[in-house]
Design a protein that fits this description.
Helix content is 85%, strand content 0%. By secondary structure, it is mainly α. The protein has one domain. The mean pLDDT is 86.
Length: 129
């Protein structure tokens, strides 16, 4: 489990850093859009892997809150899309909010994973006291 957590954290950092560096080197803002979806997809896959495999969560409450937040964001997105089909364009507000909320959620998920990894490391060293 420690390897899973460490791999998850390292890949999140690599995706973020490589996307930012590549965007700066190529001077292309479009790369940040790819980074947005790749990192978000990786974090969603990571969350679902943790959820479906039942891997013990050191921070069960935080992961549960994160999962509920993702679920509500998806539900609101679907509702905004359905309202768009009914000629009520609330989806523009939703998309604008997602530009702000998504980086916060990405940082939140990284902090959850980091806290879990630290807890696992602490548990390994507890017998040395």
């Amino acid at each position: 489990m420690k390897l899973l957590k460490l791999t998850d954290l390292v890949l999140q950092l690599l995706i973020t850093i490589s996307g930012i560096v590549l965007g700066i080197i190529k001077d292309d803002i479009q790369i940040l859009l790819y980074l947005y979806f790749i990192l978000g997809g990786w974090q969603l896959a990571s969350y679902l892997t943790h959820y479906l495999t039942g891997v013990s969560w050191a921070n069960r409450v935080e992961r549960s809150q994160y999962g509920h937040t993702v679920l509500w964001v998806a539900v609101v997105g679907v509702l905004c899309y359905l309202l768009l089909l009914a000629d009520l364009p609330f989806i523009a507000f939703y998309l604008l909010a997602m530009v702000i909320i998504s980086p916060v959620m990405a940082c939140w998920y990284f902090v959850i994973g980091l806290a879990e990894w630290r807890t696992i490391r602490h548990r390994e060293l507890i017998h040395l006291k």
